[in-house]
Amino acid sequence: MSFANEKIIIKQLDFRPKSKNHPFDCGNSDLNEYLLRYAWSNHNKGYAKVYIAVNPTKASRNILGYYAISAAALNIDALPESLRKGQPKQVPCVKIGRLANAIAVRGKGIGRKLLFHALYQTVEISKMVGVSGVTADAKIESIGFYEKYGFLRLEDSNSFFLPIETIKQGFEKS
Ligand SMILES: CC(C)(COP(=O)(O)OP(=O)(O)OC[C@H]1O[C@@H](n2cnc3c(N)ncnc32)[C@H](O)[C@@H]1OP(=O)(O)O)[C@@H](O)C(=O)NCCC(=O)NCCS
Questions:
Q1: Of 99, 109, 6, which Cα lies nearest the Cα of 52?
Q2: Distance from residue 107's CA to the centre of ligand 1 (Å)
Q3: Ligand 1 center to 95 CA (angstroms)
Q4: Which of these, 152, 154, 151, 158, lies nearest to 116 by C-alpha position?
Q5: Does residue 165 surpass a pLDDT of 80?
Q6: β-strands 159-163, 133-137: how paired?
Q7: I need a surface site. Which of 30, 40, 52, 69 has the fewest CB within 10 A?
Q8: CATH of domain 9-173
């Protein structure tokens, strides 16, 4: 099977993924397990909203990638000092709890599309709810991915933060 020039749509999870019918392997067992065991219930209970990337031409339930976002708060002390001024003690955030794509489609821009989709959603949310930025917990191997898109690493952790103003400016430029 070729995934060259893979076209995708990103939509909310609208079925319960099952390992037999919807195998997914991103190379990280926690992230695989989340999709198959917890994503559907978390999505329906509202603890997270899960978005999936699928191929639009095949009415496909073949999940190429996914991310989960939730409301969150960061303690102001976790932010780099340069970003603390004027922030409340509990800094309101949107958290990308998980983001992954299948090994079979790695390196074709799907990770970037998922990330940008989550950032765009955050801009929309920020019109209705106070949001200072997006936070994400990176796996060691994906630290470079978040750094590439301007996320700032929080001290002594693999957590990242991207200010909402930076995100808005990024979309204005594109
Ligand atoms: C991290 C991940 C989502 C990247 O997905 P991907 O589809 O390979 O990434 P893309 O093809 O969209 O890459 C977009 C850009 O990011 C870069 N990039 C991708 N992964 C990277 C990494 N780990 N470190 C540094 N840069 C990376 C690519 O080189 C590309 O740059 P370019 O546009 O200059 O060529 C994917 O590797 C993955 O699912 N990993 C396992 C799960 C994981 O670690 N998730 C994140 C933490 S929850």
A1: 99
A2: 7
A3: 18
A4: 151
A5: yes
A6: antiparallel
A7: 30
A8: 3.40.630.30
Quick check: CB of 39 below 6 Å from ligand 1?
no
Output DSSP code: residue 124: H
What is the rounded distance in angstroms from the CA atom of residue 29 to the CA atom of residue 58?
Answer: 27
Calpha distance 40→48 (Å, rounded): 9
Res 3 pLDDT > 70:
no
Model confidence at 6, pLDDT cuts 50, 70, 90, reads low
pTM, 2 dp: 0.94
* Residue 135 CB less than 6 A away from ligand 1: no
- Closest Cα to atom 27, ligand 1: which residue? 145
CA distance linking residue 55 with residue 63, whole number of Å: 8
State how far the Cα of 158 lies from the Cα of 14, in Å rounded to an integer. Answer: 31
